[in-house]
Amino acid sequence: MFTGIIQAVGQIEDVKAFDGGVQLTVNATDLDLFNVVLGDSIAHNGACMTVIELIPPCHYKIDVSDESLRCTVGLSEAGSKVNLEKALRLGDMLGGHMVSGHVDGVGKVISFEPVGENRELVICAPKNLAKYLAAKGSVVVNGVSLTTNTVRDTAEGCVFSINLIPHTLTVTTLGQLAAGASVNLEIDLIARYVERMVSSGNVQTGVTPS
After folding, report:
1. Would you state the CATH architecture of domain 8-86?
2. What is the reported pTM?
């Protein structure tokens, strides 16, 4: 599990293809790796990946399968910046919201315009994610936990807006976005279960009330 609070911005320094995916070498100079061991999970632009090799003091390697590459963006090009977050540990502060690190879809940036010192980010999400998005709800964009301002359904999908403060623009890669860019999206975990319960209210659970 993650929180969507970015701990550092890393850089993909090397990409090597193998049968079934790619192996990435990540430079995580600003990420505290002192308690990271082989097999630990780190979210990269919102996608949970497993550390397969540590290269002190600040590099590590991950394998990204073809399926993960198909479902995400921003994890296949050397030189790309990525938002990083280590997996949540028992007792850690939940500063954002409950995030699984599983990307649900890829959205497209419609606009990214200044509003005073802030920026308004407008994204079009795939139609299948529309039922999970609500005004003042939670959504993850490239690994960052954010709150939606407005939500409206269109013929192309679900368009929602987000207000980004200067701090978020500084400590994540979101400040580099522009209209037309693609972003990884993860919907709220609670919304996922609520939708399941509402849509499957007549499903027998097999649980006998006590």
Report:
1. Beta Barrel (2.40)
2. 0.92
- Residues 133-166: pLDDT tens digits? 999 999 999 999 999 999 999 999 999 999 999 9
Instruction: Measure the CA–CA gap between 185 and 199, rounded to whole angstroms.
Output: 22
* Cis check: omega of the bond before 166, within 30 degrees of 0: no
Q: Is 144 exposed, middle or buried (0-12, 13-18, 19+ CB in 10 A)?
A: buried
Phi, psi for 167 (deg, rounded to 5): -60, -45
pLDDT in tens, 164-191: 999 999 999 999 999 999 999 999 988 9
| Fold match, 8-86 / 105-197 | yes
Architecture of domain 105-197: Beta Barrel (2.40)
